[in-house]
Amino acid sequence: MKKSYVFLFLFAALFVSGMISKVYAQNEPVLYFCEEYDSKKGEIGVSDRFTTGYLTVMVKSDYELGLTDVHIQFDKLNDRGNKFEFYKKFDYVIESDMSYVFFAKNSDSDLKFEEPGLYRVFLLDDRDKTVASALIEIISK
């Protein structure tokens, strides 16, 4: 008899705690892609499938990222080994209070996908810890 009360108590506690906690669709930074970012028009051509060439990597968060030195890293899927392998890495400096940032072609980096394939793209902090990541497919022009 006591076992059934313990089970009922645990079930009720889990049920109540589930109702009290808030669930958010976005609880961490989101990384995504667009053809370009314009200061007046915003994101142009958002997708997860592009042809080879230059792209813009976007990161959006509900809170300040608190980062200054960051990296964008591309890992490409090796079809033979069926695993992702390092492809390229770009270094950036951003403001720590940013919650919405874009990484695009500039004088220091070219964010260019030169070969078709499936890529994992990461936003990494200064210790190479993943802040956000996403998959992107690149096809031939």
Give a verbal description of the structure:
This protein is mostly beta strands and 141 residues long. It contains one helix and twelve strands; from the N terminus they run αββββββββββββ. The strands form four sheets. It has a five-stranded mixed beta sheet with strand order 4-12-11-7-8, with no helix packed on it. 13% of the residues are buried. The model has no long low-confidence stretch (mean pLDDT 85).
Keywords:
single chain, 141 residues, mainly beta, three-stranded antiparallel sheet, globular
Q: What is the rounded distance between the termini?
A: 70 Å
List the strand order in the largest sheet: 4-12-11-7-8
In sequence order, what are the helices and strands, one letter per element?
A: HEEEEEEEEEEEE
Spatial extent as radius of gyration: 20 Å
Number of strands: 12
Which geometry do the CA atoms define?
globular
Which regions are unreliable across 5 or more consecutive residues at pLDDT < 50? none
Q: Averaged pLDDT, please? A: 85
Tell me the fraction of residues in β-strands, as a range. over 45%
The largest pleated sheet is described as:
5 strands, mixed
Helicity, as a percent range:
10-25%
Structural class: mainly beta
- Helix segment count? 1
